[in-house]
Every structure is written in C-alpha cells, then in structure tokens.
C-alpha cells in the first residue's frame, strides 16, 4: 500500500484535494487533470449515491454550492445530475463542466494515478454504498492502489470486512483519547485528522504502532512549516503544486 511505503521511508505523499480545487471546480475532471499537472501523488475525491443507484463524485449533500441546481444530490437521478453545470460557479471558463460518475473518473484515472475515495452521506452514507464501491474497484482491478476514507467509521469497518486488501482511513476533526484503539476497532489503516490535531509525538506513535498518519489541507507555507517536518505519510492540498514544491525542496517527497 502506497502510504505504508511512504511511512516506512519517512516520506510524504502529496494528495490533490478534490483534484486541485484551488485551481478548478472541485471534484470535476478539470480539477483532477490539474491535480496531475500539479504533481500530486494521489487524488482525493468524495462520493454519493444518486437516486437511481449510481456512484457520483461530489462533496456536499446538496448540489447548491457547486452547481447551478438545488436540492439533495441523493434525491436526483443520474440524468438530473448530468443536467447540472458543475463549473460555472467556479468561473465562466469552466461553464458546461459536468458532475462525473465514479466510473467515468476511474475510466480516466485507473492507469494514471491512485485515488483516495471518501464516502460521504448525511447523516449516514446510503446503505449499500460500500458494496457498490468495492464492486467497481474490483472491476477496475485497482484494489491495491486505492484508499477508501470517511468520517463514517462504521463504513470503514464494513469496507475492510468485505475487502481486506483495500486501505481504509478514518477522518476526524478533533482528537481521540485512544486513537490506536479506534483504529483497531474500525479495522482501519490510517488516521486522518485535520492538520491542526497532529503533533510530532502523535505521528510517531501512530507510525510506531504500524498505522498511518495522514491529514489535509496544507495550502500555505505557514501550515507546511508546521506539519511537513512531522513526516506525516500523506498530506492533502487544494494547491498540490505548492505542497509538491515545498516537499521536493526539502527532499522529503517520494
Ligand atoms: O481528505 C479528507 C478531506 O477531504 C475531508 O474533508 O470536507 O474536504 O471532505 P472534506
Ligand atoms: Ca473529502
């Protein structure tokens, strides 16, 4: 698994957050293409399930912020989702950009770059999303290089129980009294709190116990100055080129 190699070597992978969403509309193909251009090692993205059962790539539960439509994404059919413009709110040059399905993204990404796929859902993921996701990843034969991450820890446990070869990661916004116990209970490989919650000691503890420390988002030099020296195995950024340059300058990348 990619992040294990980075962890063992004391290196840091650059994760393009929602592609490279500082430069292009988040979770769309222009953003993912930009993520590769920026030198990301991994692309991060968010998924929901459409009303008619398709895995679609979007962060929010509602389409309002990022598209010209309104309402919950999970209440729309794929045809309705495909009618949305997911680019114009970011900038007129992106007008006409569509919400990708996960399958469309995998068709493009499978031989280019590994993915960190985040399962969304408010308050919980759609029942069956884990099985659908694993089926698709098996079809593309990309289980070994894909990570599945989520704030929904039950979902991570389920993923690992169905497909032990998939790397899983727990997202949190806060701190845990016993992170190792939580990782074990959810059968997860990585702990991924917001960057504010890491210290060098905590990173070292997680790595020493054989788990992976990861985080997001390092967009400024000040944040990079604080977290890159901790040797976190992977760090997300909305501007992956900035983080790429910073890490490469210090010889800490892969
Ligand atoms: O990569 C983790 C990060 O994406 C989690 O937060 O809100 O951007 O999905 P969010
Ligand atoms: Ca995410």
From TrEMBL:
Sorted UniProt keywords: Hydrolase
Gene3D superfamilies the UniProt entry points to: Phosphatidylinositol (PI) phosphodiesterase
Domain GP-PDE stretches: 12-247
A Gene Ontology biological process term: lipid metabolic process
Listed GO MF terms: glycerophosphodiester phosphodiesterase activity
EC assignment: 3.1.4.46
InterPro entries assigned to the protein according to its UniProt record, in alphabetical order: GP_PDE_dom, PLC-like_Pdiesterase_TIM-brl
Name of the protein this chain belongs to: Glycerophosphodiester phosphodiesterase
Organism: bioreactor metagenome
Highest classification ranks of the organism: unclassified sequences, metagenomes, ecological metagenomes
Name of encoding gene: glpQ_2
């Amino acid at each position: 698994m990619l992040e294990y190699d980075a962890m063992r070597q004391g290196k840091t992978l650059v994760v393009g957050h929602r592609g490279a969403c500082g430069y292009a509309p988040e979770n769309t193909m222009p953003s993912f293409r930009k993520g590769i251009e920026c030198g990301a090692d991994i692309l991060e993205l968010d998924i929901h399930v459409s009303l008619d059962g398709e895995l679609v790539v979007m962060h929010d539960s509602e389409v309002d912020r990022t598209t010209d439509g309104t309402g919950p994404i999970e209440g729309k059919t794929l045809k309705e989702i495909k009618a949305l413009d997911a680019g114009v709110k970011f900038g007129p040059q992106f007008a006409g950009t569509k919400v990708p399905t996960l399958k469309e993204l995998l068709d493009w990404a499978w031989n280019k770059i590994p993915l960190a796929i985040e399962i969304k859902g408010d308050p919980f993921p759609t029942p069956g999303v884990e099985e659908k996701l694993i089926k698709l990843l098996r079809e593309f034969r990309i289980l070994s290089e894909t990570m599945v991450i989520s704030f929904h820890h039950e979902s991570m446990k389920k993923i690992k129980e169905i497909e032990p070869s998939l790397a899983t990661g727990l997202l949190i916004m806060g701190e845990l009294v016993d992170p190792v116990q939580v990782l074990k209970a959810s059968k997860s490989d990585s702990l991924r709190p917001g960057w504010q919650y890491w210290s060098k000691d905590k990173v070292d503890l997680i790595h020493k116990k054989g788990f992976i420390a990861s985080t997001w988002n390092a967009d400024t030099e000040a944040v990079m100055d604080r977290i890159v020296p901790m040797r976190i195995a992977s760090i997300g950024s909305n501007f992956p080129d900035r983080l790429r340059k910073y890490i490469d300058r210090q010889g800490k990348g892969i």
